[in-house]
Every structure is written in structure tokens, then in C-alpha cells.
Amino acid sequence: MSSTTSRWGLRVLGLGYVGLLLVAPLILIFYKTFEDGLAPPFEAITSPDGLHALKLTLITVAIAVPLNTIFGVVCALLLVRHRRRGSALIDAVINLPFAISPVVIGLSLYLLYGTHGWFEPGLAEAGIKVLFSTPGIVLCCIFVSIPFVVRETVPVLQEIGTEQEQAASTLGANAWQTFWRVTLPAIRWGVAYGVVLTTARVLGEFGAVSVVSGNISGQTQTLPLFVQKNYENFNLPGAFGASVLLALLALATLLAMNLLKRKEAA
Amino acid sequence: MEAHAANPSTAAPRAGLRLPGVGAGLGRGLVVLYLSIFVLLPLAALTDKSFSLGLSNFWDQVTTPAALDALKLTLIASLIVVVINAVFGTILAWLLVRDDFPGKAAVNAIIDLPFALPTIVASLILIELWGKKSPVGIDISLSQTAVVVALLFVTLPFVVRAVQPLLMEMDREMEEAAASLGAGGFTIFRRVIFPNLLPGLAAGIALAFARALGEFGSVLIFAGGLADTQVSSIYIKQLIETGNEAGAAAVSVVLLLCSLACLVVVSLIQRWSSRHDRSSGLTEMPLSGFDPGVSGITSETMGEREDEERE
Questions:
Q1: Selection from A66, A58, A207 nearest residue A134 by Cα
Q2: Residue range A195-210: average pLDDT?
Q3: A81 interfaces chain B, CB cutoff of 8 Å
Q4: Per-domain residue ranges for chain B?
Q5: pLDDT tens-digit map of B232-254
Q6: What pTM did the predictor assign?
Q7: A245 contact B CB<8A
């Protein structure tokens, strides 16, 4: 077998696999969505329920992403610049959301905030509803997307070292000045990469949210839940339309990831 | 103490300035508080619930025929999936690093699609192509094959992204030396390339396995929650819906322990490989929506970075 033959063999195998598994289904969904023109999917998404799902999804992004970004940067600074014995434990806990099934995450929150849950008496007294309402959905999204910013910022922080920060402090900069003018500009692409991944994860979170939200149209339905419900109710334009919207956001995420990788490398 | 940490003139010389506004101690407290509220407390409630009806009930819940069937399907399907994706992942990594073909950058980018695409959308697009309405006439939906295909979809990037950096850094000279000594393509792969890729491959496999064990959305529509296509996460969801919270919690704890075992394996591999001077490849693994299980901090750098206690 010549090396050209084996090279072509590998190409056919590898690219064929990606083609069948990833690309073909993606192309098909775009085709099916717009088969009857732009109107049906557009009308489905701009229906009151569709718009509400979009709004709710954006609200969760607006809360979960900034929180996890601030947490991620602070945590990365601690893990890299203030390494101590307990840090390994923090490190391990941060990885947990990667390993836990979304349904298990949803169930954990359900058991903590739901009927007979640990927090149930206090919450009921205060009149706060967590389950089957926006706070529960946001809590799910925070849980599942905690690791990304930390994970992307840690290696960058390690790489830049402390020399410039030391120089800044020698020149009289205070902690905030050093952070804003030296550290943050150096780690910004890594942080941004983490933010992109966090956003993508929050936008698409399904398993955990499906346990705590109740999936009530127009109330506790995020876009991925909207996809599921419409598919189950045979409202295909709605399911396809929202899917394509989410798929476009996913493709935008890939584009952003690529650009940021290039910036980071530059 | 906070003032000390924030004061450049009194900070330790190698310390530089790190945490603005709050001192390291307060920062650590906030980080621990955040993780406790959002991660640890819910998991504690879960564990508490799983044992709420006693140890024997826990055991009964996780050993019902349905629970065992679900766990068995989850484990076997995940195993098949990581084997297939280990092979194709390595081929893809090789193509992306060593080969050159038009559209390579696009293929490299699309590999991460499963990380960016919501799982429920993945399920929907898979059933449209490989379901009843399949344009190519192949219907595998609502079967165990569908479970495998859905898991193949969501775990595709792990091995590729774990092997790719190792392949990039690999010394071509070793292969050239082997070739000049008369080794054929396959021998070179087996004896030279493969051993070098092993740490990345193993880490990628363990991560993919952990992900496959807990997968829910992509399996849901495509494979359905039928008696013979019910993976553990779907079984848990059904227990919740039927009001058996203690049972759901018990099965969750078992699933959780399986995934944690995977994370431990990943971190052991990384520790091992960093000791064997292969750390550079693994620690600089470009993480796209996943992580090698421990942060890039190796055991060596850990010692250096330990701070003096400032309390």
C-alpha cells in the first residue's frame, strides 16, 4: 500500500466521519427549516411564546455569564498567583460540573429548593419561588458553566508570569491599577474565550433546566425547551426555527473561538 | 492583612500584585462561598436525599431491573463510543496536523460544533437525518444504535483536541529515523507515534467517557426513553417525574461516582505525564468547552507557587 493511498484512505475515513456525523445533519436542518420559505420559522420564533423563550434565555445569559466571568477571573488569580494547600480542592470542585450529568445537576437544585427541600421553609416564608421560575433556571446555568472562564484564564495567567506585574508595582501602581492596566490586558483574550464558551453553554443548557423549570410555554421556557416542546407537539416550524437560531449562535460561537485563538496566538 | 497584600512596597518581591480590591484571604473566602452556594450545597442536598430512606432503600433503588438496565446501557454505549471516537479522533487529529487539504481550517473549526450546539438541537438534527423521515432511507431512531450515534456526536471533539497538541509538538526526527531504519508506515505509527500520543489519547478518552455517561439532551429525542433505549440520565428524569425523588437521587449518586472516577483517572494521567516530561503537550491542550480534568497547574509548578501564609 503506497503512502498516497493510505493518505487518501485516512482522508476519506476522517472527513467522511465528520461529514456524516456533524455536517450532513446540520445542513439538512437548515434545508428543512427553510423548505417552505422564511415565513414559517420566522413566525414561529416571533410568536409570543417564541419571543418569551428568547427573552428568558437572554436573561439567563445576562445573569449567569457576568457572574461566572467575575468568579472565573478571581478564582484563576487565586489558583495561579496564590497557590496554597486548599487550592487543589478548589480546583477539583471547579471541574465537577464537567463530570456531572445535567439531569443530576437539575435534580440537586430541585432537592435543595423544592418541596421538602432544605431551603423550602425559608423560601416559602419569604415568598420567593425558585423552582418552576427564573431563579431556578439561572441557578442551573450558573452551575453548568462555572468552569469555563477559570479553565481558559489559568493557563494564560501562568504563561504571562509575574514580571510585568512586579514592574508595575515597583513603579508605584496600586493593586487595581496593576490589575486593570497590566494583568487584564494580558489575559483578556483568554478570558474572552472563556466568556464565549460560557455563553454558548448557558444558551444551550437543556438537561438541568428541564428538571427545574416545568417547561411552561410563555413562562419558564427557554429556547432549548421551546425546541423540545414544539417537536413533541409536532409543531415542526417552531422546533426547526428555534433550532436553526440556536445552530446559528453555535456557528457564531465557533467563529468567535477561532478569532480569539488567533488573537491569543498573536 | 488585606492592606498588606494590596501594598506593593511590603508585598513579597516575587509576589507582584495579584488580587486587586480584596486580599487573597478574602478572595479565597468568596470563591469558596460561591462554589458552596452554587455547587456544593445542591450536591449535598442530593446525597442527603439519596440516603434519606436508609441504606437498604438506596441499594434497592439502584438495583431495580430498570435502574440496572439503564446503567448497563449507559456504560456499554459509552464504552463503544469512546473506542470509535478514539480511532476517528486520532485519524482526524493526524489529518489536521500532518495533512494538507482544502478546507482544513473549516474542518478544524467544525470539530468543536458539538461543544457549541445545544444538545437538544443535536438530537433533533440527528433524528431528521437518521430517523423515520430520513432522506437517505436509513432509520435508526428510537434504538440502541441511536444512543450510540448521539453519544458519538457529542463526544467527537474530546479525543481530537487532546491528541492534536501532542501531535503538533512531536519530533518528526524520530519518525524519520524509524523510516530510514526501514520501518513501514504502520510500524512507525505503532512503535513511535502511538506511544507518544498515549497520554493525550487516554485523557481524551476518559473525558469523553465522563461526558457520555451523563449525556441527556442529545439522546432524548433521537433515541427516546423507551424501555430498551433508556440511559441512566433519562431514567433519573423519569423517576423525578413519577415523584420518586429518593430513587432518582440514589441513581444520580451512582452515576456521579462513575463520572468522578473518570475525572480522577484524567488527573492521574496528567500527573503521570507531567512527571514523564510530556507535560507541555497536555497542559497546553487547547480547551474548547472541556477540560483535562485538572487545571494546567502541574505538580511541579504547584510547589513554586505556594504562597506564604499572610494571615
A1: A58
A2: 95
A3: yes
A4: 1-11+19-50, 53-293
A5: 999 999 999 999 999 999 999 99
A6: 0.88
A7: no
Cβ <8 Å between A175 and B6: yes
Judge whether residue B18 has pLDDT over 80.
no
Q: Mean pLDDT throughout A29-57?
A: 93
Band of pLDDT at residue B187, cut at 50, 70 and 90: confident
Q: A50 pLDDT exceeds 90?
A: yes
The whole-number pLDDT of residue B305 equals 39
Q: Specify the residue for cell string 431514567.
A: B235
Whether B151 and B218 have beta carbons less than 8 Å apart is answered as: yes
Q: A96, B43: Cβ pair inside 8 Å? A: yes
Centre a 10 Å sphere on the Cβ of residue A128 and count the other Cβ atoms it contains.
Answer: 12
The reply to whether B46 touches chain A by the CB within 8 Å rule is: yes
CB contact under 8 A, A101 and B252: yes
Query: Any bridge partners for residue A83, and if so which?
Result: B306
Nearest CB to A83 within list B17, B256, B306: B306
Restricting to A residues 37-66, those with a Cβ less than 8 Å away from any Cβ of B are none
**A176 Cβ under 8 Å from any chain B Cβ:** yes
Q: How many helices (H) and strands (E) does chain B have?
A: 17, 0
Are B110 and A85 a contacting pair at CB < 8 A? no
Q: How far apart are CA A210 and CA A102, in angstroms?
A: 9
CA dist., res. B311 & res. B296, Å (int): 27
Question: What is the amino acid identity at position B225?
Answer: G
Query: CA B133 to CA B151: how far, in whole Å?
Result: 21
Cα A107 to Cα B94: distance, rounded to the nearest angstrom: 40
| Angle in degrees, 0-180, between the axes of helices A236-265 and B119-130, rounded to the nearest 10 | 120
The secondary structure of residue B306, as a DSSP letter, is B
B6 pLDDT above the threshold of 50? no
Residue B297 has pLDDT above 50, yes or no: no
| pLDDT(B8) > 70 | no
Q: Which amino acid is at A264?
A: E
Backbone φ and ψ for B62, nearest 5 degrees, come out as -85, -5
Chain segment B61-119, per-residue pLDDT in tens: 999 999 999 999 999 999 999 999 999 999 999 999 999 999 999 999 999 999 999 99
Average pLDDT on A40-65 reads 94
Task: Take residue B196 and report the three cell numbers written for it.
Answer: 507518544
**Residue A57 pLDDT greater than 80, yes or no:** yes
Whether B102 has its CB under 8 Å from any CB of chain A: the answer is: no
Q: How far is CA A131 from the centre of its chain?
A: 21
Cβ-Cβ contacts under 8 Å, B158 against chain A: none
Min Cα–Cα distance to chain A from B239, Å = 10
Residues in B closer than 8 angstroms to A24, CB to CB, are 129
CATH code reported for the domain at B53-293: 1.10.3720.10
Position B38, amino acid: F
Q: Which residues 143-182 on chain B approach chain A with CB closer than 8 angstroms?
A: 149, 152-153, 156
- B142 inside 8 A of chain A by CB: no
Across the interface, whether the CB atoms of B31 and A96 are under 8 A apart is answered: no
Instruction: Please state, in angstroms and rounded to a whole number, the distance separating the CA atoms of residues A41 and A34.
Output: 7
Q: Which amino acid is at B193?
A: I
